[in-house]
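Exercise 7b. Backbone tokens:
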């Protein structure tokens, strides 16, 4: 165990690790209240229209079936700000996969059999589900996600581009992508004495509690949500999803606890996806590489249920200095499931296109791509004109180049061949904003020397329990062995969700403040502690959410080495390296895991992952892990993550930035740039599958 002197930054093992590997840690669908029933949804098999008839007789006749909820029999829900949760309230079908009924039975097998026995008749309507076929129908929204203006313009970008001595005008496309956490979405719900208890796979229990209270018209104190262990989410568990509402409806209807676990094939249409994006990049520069104009225009899709606009042009407002710039978003409303958050939303897509275009400009200039990026390093954030709280991108590029062996790199594409294999290297930059939200926390000092931290944080596999323990130990001046951290249940002090790489910064700020208050109380206290101990409470509302005078971002540099089979077009990644400037690293072990995990996910984005919409049915094809390919161990033979020591006094008491998402941001572009360096072929649509690469060869 680390002492208080090195609690922050030390590579302490996960505090819940033993519970997870022994099965002691319970996930949402592993709770089994007495009398628990099981539910299975019936989902629409058409892209648009309405249900004309639902025949449930055969389903209800099966042994063990308790009920089949339909829009005629399901509990009524109050209106919500999230229309994706208005399920079983009417017979409309806004997209393929929309829930239209729910079977409930004594066993999982009976519930599934009942759902398959429901007979549905539809009245269909004409539909449009593929972005590439509907680009002309796109409109400019009021804003993109995160409250970002849909368009930002600086200077005269079109004229500056037209007059620039060196230009690139390119188009990049990214397909729909799916989160696919290891733990599929599921919930166990139980109504008792007018109260609702729900165990949910969620990144934020307090958010789920508020929404359930709203939908079922309950005071929040009559709703308990437990999210003690969550097996990944990557954004798909960031807001309440239909499964928790369906489970609660089924429990209310039957009077029994109900468990609902979504089959993996249902996830792409029920819990969100990364929207496809079509990017047009125009970069104009002087012959020495100085940018004169940056134009990044993005078109994406949303559903007709709820507008969601992937903010993929926003990173171009942060990255490089130029006197003129245009960044804009357009969106087409289609008959598709509502897109949602997926690891580094906006940044992952936008930086793939931007960093690929920057590489193309370097090629047009005959300039080293690292030097081109350094040449256009801005003194302040280009869009807001605010100073950066810290920006060490150049240091990441330089250190990465040294670690990777970039010096002496032959810039010629297609020059390195061994038998049928061509090899090449590529680089890309990465950025992610520093986000933080208000939070409450308490800490209690007990007479036996134990300190108990309480905050309703959610650990989605990132090591939140461990890092918050380290934050508390450092602030209290004690060893981590004398700190216990309680998280994952409503009733604990309210906390924001785990998302936007903001969890540790938000929760840790409140924990740090509570610990400092407790230290002062202990200094003023005389005599032995009372049996219940001394407790201090902190609330960072008004401080954590205060407007900053600084532009706050994490930065990084990604390097990739690939080999390309000239006979088949297969791309093999031999090496990946990431170097990051992300403030103070609070736990070296869990941080490295987060960086590497993001890089592996970026590799999947580059080479294997693709959601495909069937134009005829509006359905996502390849909707399980047999058809949607994520990287395996054999795909990642050599991967390294490093960071530079970065001090930033304009963040939070720990000096930390988020690290969960930046690892994915530049990886796909670095791999794509390496493929071009290996082959001379520029494939501008992800993933870089063998057929696409071979066609170029």
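Sequence design result:
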């Amino acid at each position: 165990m680390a002492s208080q002197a090195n609690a922050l930054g030390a590579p302490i093992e996960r505090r819940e690790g033993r519970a997870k590997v022994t099965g002691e840690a319970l996930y949402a669908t592993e709770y089994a209240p007495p009398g628990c029933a099981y539910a299975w949804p019936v989902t629409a098999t058409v892209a648009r229209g309405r249900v004309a008839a639902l025949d449930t007789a055969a389903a209800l006749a099966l042994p063990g079936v308790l009920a089949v909820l339909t829009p005629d029999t399901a509990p009524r829900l109050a209106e919500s700000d999230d229309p994706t949760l208005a399920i079983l309230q009417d017979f409309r079908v806004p997209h393929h996969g929309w829930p239209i009924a729910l079977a409930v039975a004594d066993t999982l097998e009976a519930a599934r059999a009942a759902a398959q026995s429901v007979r549905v008749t539809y009245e269909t309507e004409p539909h449009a589900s593929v972005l590439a076929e509907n680009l002309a129908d796109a409109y400019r929204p009021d804003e993109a996600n995160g409250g970002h203006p849909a368009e930002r313009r600086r200077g005269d970008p079109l004229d500056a581009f037209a007059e620039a001595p060196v230009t690139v005008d390119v188009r990049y496309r990214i397909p729909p992508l799916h989160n696919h956490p290891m733990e599929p979405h599921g919930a166990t719900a139980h109504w008792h004495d007018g109260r609702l208890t729900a165990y949910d796979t969620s990144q934020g229990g307090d958010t789920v509690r508020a929404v359930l209270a709203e939908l079922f018209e309950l005071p929040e104190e009559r709703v308990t949500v437990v999210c003690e262990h969550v097996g990944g989410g990557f954004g798909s568990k960031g807001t309440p999803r239909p499964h928790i509402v369906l489970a609660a409806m089924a429990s209310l209807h039957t009077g029994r606890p109900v468990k609902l676990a979504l089959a993996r094939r249902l996830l792409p249409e029920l819990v969100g996806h990364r929207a496809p994006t079509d990017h047009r990049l125009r970069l104009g520069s002087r012959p020495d590489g100085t940018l004169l104009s940056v134009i990044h225009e993005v078109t994406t899709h949303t559903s007709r249920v709820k507008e969601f606009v992937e903010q993929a042009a926003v990173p171009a407002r942060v990255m490089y200095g130029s006197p003129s710039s245009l960044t804009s978003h357009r969106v087409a409303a289609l008959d598709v499931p509502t897109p949602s958050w997926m690891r580094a939303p906006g940044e992952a897509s936008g930086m793939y296109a931007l960093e690929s275009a920057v590489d193309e400009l370097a090629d047009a200039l005959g300039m080293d791509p690292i030097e081109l990026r350094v040449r256009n390093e801005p003194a302040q954030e280009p869009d807001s004109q605010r100073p950066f709280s810290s920006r060490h991108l150049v240091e990441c590029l330089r250190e990465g180049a040294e670690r990777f062996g970039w010096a002496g790199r032959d810039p010629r594409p297609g020059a390195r061949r061994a038998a049928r294999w061509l090899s090449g290297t590529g680089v890309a930059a990465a950025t992610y904003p520093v986000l933080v939200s208000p939070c409450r926390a308490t800490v209690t000092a007990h007479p036996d020397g134990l300190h108990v931290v309480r905050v309703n944080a959610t650990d989605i596999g990132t090591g939140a329990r461990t890092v918050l323990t380290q934050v508390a130990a450092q602030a209290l001046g004690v060893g981590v062995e004398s700190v216990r951290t309680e998280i994952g249940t409503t009733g604990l002090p309210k906390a924001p969700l785990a998302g936007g790489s903001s969890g540790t910064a938000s929760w840790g700020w409140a924990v740090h403040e509570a610990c400092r208050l407790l230290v002062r109380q202990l200094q003023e206290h005389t005599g032995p502690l009372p049996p219940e101990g001394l407790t201090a409470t902190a609330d960072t509302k008004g401080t954590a959410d205060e407007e900053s005078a600084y532009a706050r971002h994490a930065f990084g540099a990604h390097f990739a080495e690939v080999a390309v089979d000239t006979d088949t077009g297969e791309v093999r990644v031999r090496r990946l390296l990431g170097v990051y400037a992300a403030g103070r690293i609070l736990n070296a072990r869990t941080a490295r895991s987060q960086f590497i995990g993001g890089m592996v996910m970026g590799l999947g984005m580059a080479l294997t992952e693709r959601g495909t919409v069937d134009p005829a049915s509006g359905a996502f094809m390849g909707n399980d892990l047999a058809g949607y390919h994520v990287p395996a161990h054999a795909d990642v033979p050599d991967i390294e993550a490093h960071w530079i020591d970065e001090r930033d006094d304009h963040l939070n008491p720990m000096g930390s930035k988020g690290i969960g998402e930046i690892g994915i941001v530049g990886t796909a572009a670095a791999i794509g740039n390496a493929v071009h360096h290996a082959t001379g072929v520029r494939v501008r649509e992800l993933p870089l599958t063998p057929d696409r690469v071979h066609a170029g060869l």
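Instructor comment: The longest strand covers residues 291-303. Residues 344 and 402 are 27 Å apart (CA to CA).
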